[in-house]
Structures are given as structure tokens and as C-alpha cells.
UniProtKB/TrEMBL annotation:
The lineage of its organism: Eukaryota, Metazoa, Chordata, Craniata, Vertebrata. It comes from Salvelinus namaycush. F-type ATPases have 2 components, CF(1) - the catalytic core - and CF(0) - the membrane proton channel. CF(1) and CF(0) have multiple subunits. Component of the ATP synthase complex composed at least of ATP5F1A/subunit alpha, ATP5F1B/subunit beta, ATP5MC1/subunit c (homooctomer), MT-ATP6/subunit a, MT-ATP8/subunit 8, ATP5ME/subunit e, ATP5MF/subunit f, ATP5MG/subunit g, ATP5MK/subunit k, ATP5MJ/subunit j, ATP5F1C/subunit gamma, ATP5F1D/subunit delta, ATP5F1E/subunit epsilon, ATP5PF/subunit F6, ATP5PB/subunit b, ATP5PD/subunit d, ATP5PO/subunit OSCP. This is ATP synthase subunit b. Keywords: Acetylation, CF(0), Hydrogen ion transport, Ion transport, Membrane, Mitochondrion, Mitochondrion inner membrane, Transit peptide, Transport. GO terms for cellular component: mitochondrial inner membrane; proton-transporting ATP synthase complex. Coiled coil: none annotated. GO terms for molecular function: proton-transporting ATP synthase activity, rotational mechanism. Belongs to the eukaryotic ATPase B chain family. Gene3D superfamilies: 1.20.5.2210. Subunit b, of the mitochondrial membrane ATP synthase complex (F(1)F(0) ATP synthase or Complex V) that produces ATP from ADP in the presence of a proton gradient across the membrane which is generated by electron transport complexes of the respiratory chain. ATP synthase complex consist of a soluble F(1) head domain - the catalytic core - and a membrane F(1) domain - the membrane proton channel. These two domains are linked by a central stalk rotating inside the F(1) region and a stationary peripheral stalk. The keyword Membrane applies. It is found in: Mitochondrion; Mitochondrion inner membrane. PANTHER family: ATP SYNTHASE F(0) COMPLEX SUBUNIT B1, MITOCHONDRIAL, MITOCHONDRIAL ATP SYNTHASE B CHAIN.
């Protein structure tokens, strides 16, 4: 199909059969954005060909410049060039391919119409079955749409009930959330109070241990001689203070 579009010209497309008309309509459809025309259906059969595989549009394209023999001369020239340049070399595979192609062409021409008719019959049966399935599905879907509309009409009266239930559920969720927040707050407060009491206990025990340790070290560091010296010094200081007080009293 793409090869036909490449070789076709505007005049050749307009003068061709249903395929050309369809291509022209399709080109106008795509070039006019404001057009609302439906897309034409694809043709069931292809366009005309010569020798089974060469599109007719190629001959029509070359006819205006080269005449009737132009396409044949083009093909013969290409074949001569390929053989002369040894791009393709004729060997035993060439004869085998020619024999196979002859058998295939004979089979297509001999049995092609019968096979095509049989295939068309099978295709029509498949299309008919598919149409029946489609019609059944459309009927069931249409009934389902009607049932759905009826259920929607019934559900409209329950909207207020759904709103009340939704509000009740929201209130329950909010109550549950606040209870959990209160429980978490109490647990956190208890843990903080425990940590404060534990730190206070540790601080008091450290202070007591430090006082005891200092007192013990001070006591153990005093020797008997120092103790006697300290007592004598205290007695001397007391005597001096007594004399000073007596002097003040007599004065």
C-alpha cells in the first residue's frame, strides 16, 4: 500500500478505481481540519496489478513520459545492469527459484479463486458470529445501564443516612484519637517524673558520698602529733582571748 502511495500522482489517483477515490477523500479529510466527514472504510480488495506484483499506478506514472514500453524497458535495464555488474550471479539456485515461482504462480492461478471463496465464507461466518456476540453484549450492557440508573435513583434517598453515619464515624475516630493522645501524654509525664526523681536521687547520693569521702580523708590525714599541736594551739588562743576579755573588762 505504501509503494502505491509513493508512485501515485494526483491525476493518476483521481483516474484510478475505488482505491484512488478513497485515497483522495482521505487526503482531503486530513488536509481540512474543519471537516467532520467520517473516515472512509478501507477497501476489501487491492488495486489493479500487472504480472501479479507490479502496481498499475507505476505504469500510469511512466506512461506520460515513456509510453507503453517505458516500465518494461526500465525493468529490463535494471535487470541488465544487475547482471552485467555481477550484483546478482545466475546459478543453480536461480533455476530452482524460477521453478518454484512457476509452481507457486500456477497454484495461485489454478486454486486461488476456490481458496479465496472458501476463506471469504469462513470470514463471513466469523463476522456473523462476532456480530451476534456484539448484539448480545450490547443488549446486556444496555440492560445493565438501566439497572444502574435505577440503583442510582434509589441511592439518592440514602444520602442523608450516609452523611449521618459518616459524621458518627468521624466523631468516634476523633474521640479515639483524643483518648490515645491523653494516654500518651500521661505515659510521657510519668516517664519524665521518673527520670527527674532518678536524677535527684543520683545527685543526693553523689553529694553524700563526696561528703563522707572528704570527711574520711581529712580524718585519716591528721596524725597524733598534729592533733596535739592543734589542741595546744587552741588552748593558747583561748588563753589569749581570755586575757583580752579581762583587759577590756578592767578598762
Amino acid at each position: 500500500m505504501l509503494s502505491r502511495i509513493v508512485f501515485v500522482s494526483a491525476n493518476a489517483v483521481k483516474s484510478s478505481g475505488p482505491l484512488g477515490a478513497g485515497l483522495v477523500q482521505l487526503s482531503h479529510l486530513h488536509t481540512s481540519p474543519n471537516s467532520q466527514a467520517p473516515v472512509p472504510a478501507l477497501p476489501e480488495k487491492g488495486g489493479k496489478t500487472r504480472h501479479g506484483i507490479i502496481p498499475e499506478e507505476l505504469f500510469q506514472l511512466l506512461y506520460a513520459k515513456t509510453g507503453v514500453t517505458g516500465p518494461y524497458m526500465l525493468g529490463a535495464g535494471l535487470l541488465t545492469y544487475i547482471l552485467s555488474k555481477e550484483i546478482y550471479i545466475i546459478n543453480h539456485e536461480t533455476f530452482a527459484a524460477a521453478c518454484m515461482g512457476t509452481v507457486i504462480i500456477y497454484g495461485v492461478r489454478k486454486f486461488g479463486p476456490d481458496v479465496a471463496a472458501f476463506a471469504d465464507k469462513l470470514n463471513e461466518e466469523k463476522v456473523q458470529k462476532a456480530q451476534e456476540v456484539k448484539d448480545l453484549a450490547m443488549t446486556s450492557l444496555a440492560q445493565a445501564v438501566q439497572d444502574e440508573k435505577k440503583e442510582q435513583w434509589r441511592a439518592e434517598g440514602r444520602q442523608m443516612l450516609f452523611d449521618a453515619k459518616r459524621n458518627n464515624v468521624a466523631m468516634l475516630l476523633e474521640t479515639n484519637r483524643r483518648e490515645r493522645v491523653h494516654m500518651v501524654t500521661n505515659d510521657v509525664k510519668k516517664r519524665l517524673d521518673y527520670q527527674i526523681a532518678l536524677q535527684t536521687l543520683h545527685r543526693r547520693m553523689e553529694q553524700e558520698h563526696m561528703v563522707n569521702w572528704v570527711e574520711k580523708n581529712v580524718v585519716t590525714s591528721i596524725t597524733p602529733q598534729q592533733e596535739k599541736t592543734s589542741i595546744a594551739k587552741c588552748i593558747t588562743d583561748l588563753k589569749v582571748l581570755a586575757k583580752v576579755q579581762q583587759a577590756k573588762a578592767t578598762a
